[in-house]
Amino acid sequence: MRLSFLMTFLIASLFVQAQNPVSWQFQTQKKDDGGYEVILKASIQPGWHLYSQKQPDDAIAIPTSIQFNNNPLVIREKEVREVGKMQKYVDKTLGVTAYQYSNEVSFIQSVKLKAKVKTAITGEIEYQVCDDEKCLPPKKVPFTIALN
């Protein structure tokens, strides 16, 4: 009995881990003022959605969060902005709302270098995705993006 329970649990865990409805692309665009736009682009499989960084007060969704590691050569300007078609989801049964994206969304951070050097910006994105029936556990994805 214990062995069959353990096997069922392991198979279910592997299925959830193998299911990855979001793929990430990391890139930069040089701006006219010499700075950069650091772009973290999520491509989301049909039927799934990813949550915005900011959620309504009544939300129970886990918002996307982006942590940048300290780099003394990089100045981050303003807040990370989101570019995509935001949807306001209302769950009438639970009485909660959420801000979410389907298909794709880009998280963009403007940065400047303190000197003309080659360096990188590093960090980690934590996000959760859901479909109409379930949510997957939050996932963390590290990134390193060259600035040169």
Order of helices and strands: HEEEEEEEEE
What is the residue-averaged pLDDT? 88
Give the CA-CA distance, first to last residue: 58 Å
- Known CATH architecture: Sandwich
How many domains is the backbone divided into?
1
Q: Based on the structure, what is the oligomeric state of the protein chains?
A: single chain
Name the structural class.
mainly beta
List low-confidence stretches.
Answer: 1-17
Here the CATH topology equals Immunoglobulin-like
Radius of gyration: 18 Å
Strand content: over 45%
Overall description:
It is a single chain. The protein has 148 residues and is mostly beta strands. It has a single domain (21-147), classed as Thiol:disulfide interchange protein DsbD, N-terminal domain (Immunoglobulin-like, Sandwich), CATH 2.60.40.1250. It has one helix at 2-18; strands at residues 22-30, 36-44, 49-51, 65-68, 74-91, 96-113, 119-127, 129-130, 139-147. The strands form 2 sheets. Strands 1, 2, 3, 5, 6 and 8 form a 6-stranded antiparallel beta sheet that branches. Strands 4-7-9 form a 3-stranded antiparallel beta sheet, with no helix packed on it. It is elongated. Residues 1-17 have low confidence and may be disordered.
